[in-house]
Prior knowledge:
Order of helices and strands: HEHEEHEEHEEHEHHHEEHHHHHHHH
Amino acid sequence: MLGSKHLELFCALGMALALALTALLYFGGEALGIAPASAAPGYSYRLFDAGRVHTLDLRVEDWGGFLQSAPEEEYIPCTVLIDGEEFRQVGLRAKGNNSLGLTEEYGLGRYSLKLEFDHYLDGGSYYGLDKFSLDASFQDNSYLKTWLAYDMMDFMGVPAPLCSFVQVSVNGVPWGLFLAVEEPEEAFARRNFGPDHGRLYKPDYRSLREENADVALRYLDGDPASYPNIFENAKFDVTAADQARLIEALRVLSTGKDLERAVAVDQVLRYFAVQVFVMNWDSYLGPTGHNYFLYEEDGVISILPWDYNLAFGTYALGMTDPIRDPGVLVNWPVNTPWRGEVMLNRPLYHNLMQNDQYFARYRDYLDQLLTQYLESGRCEARLRQVQAMIAPYVEADPTAFCSYQDHLLAVDTLLEVCRLRGESIRGQLSGIYPDTLAERARQPGSGVDASALDLRDLGDFEDLEEALPRQQAALAAVEAAPAA
């Protein structure tokens, strides 16, 4: 039998061992491949530490050849150095839709990019992250539109991709300042919804000339083959049961009844509040109906944010008669985010807003966004802080779409757009300004005065023409450097 002194010694040794093991797992467990279940993923506080500008060097043998074939969106293997840490056999390709086509059309080389760590290596990752994008700030002279939209979404409690600014180089030669954005795939789903997460889709149209009813989330019938633009764009392997759950959710949505059985109503209303504020019509709420992620878990669907370089009233692509008047755009009604023939085919918005309780909650979330994010000064403070952080990188950006002076003007313009948009929405919520297109047609001059605003200052096609010499010189510098 142990004596009391021996028992005390034994307990003390046991406690010391337990503390040492706890410290090892907490501070060194990640190095051993062990991570606490409740810990944030490693990539979230490395590359996506948003408090500084990171560095990323792409080691590519033939960068000019890669850019020539970029519109094909084919992967090539490369080595990537992120903040000095090397990762080999990473998949690299260009990304985009209209931005990719226009970059090629204007003879430019500053494409947005995707980096996929498990494309060539099974299980490859960047501290748990399978894929991220490098956003080129196409038609965004501020460099901040996408960042700001995601910050608003995050503030309003909508699961949004992590992002941070990255100084990109190619074979050690400066290439430009990009925004790194977490791709909504496995790591994103696990971070936001836990290890037993549901299914993730990125519905997208094949052609704007087609009906694309499934991209609009309209219920057609019970056949999965009727929803190719959803199921062929699944981020995970899906089973027949997965398809059946999603189709049933769309069926319930189409009825307009018992919607909480099929829709994460609160999250969707928060999403729409931000989406309407930022005037992003290259989206579910606009003519194209795409640029979103669809999440389904246990038969309940929600919509997640994606792609904001054409937000804040700068979308014109795909529109036969684009709206240019800033007064019309800034005062766009919050109750009818687009024209009726489009919105009637957007059941995730239209059918929710037919419910008086949900409609009132949506307007409450608009009020919350104005009160707590915009009118409190948070928006300007955060934007100015990030602007100061990225300023030297923008000024030295060799492939920038605009001059540094144009960048400064764009940031001021973006803040003014937000101020005027907030003032207009405040007036709409209080009944001073029209909040539907029908009312606005009867009062065409009503709303805030935005006549001094020029939305082209946020980024326009003329900038693409002026960027060509800069980007050609940057490519020449890369090609003159030693190969990777």
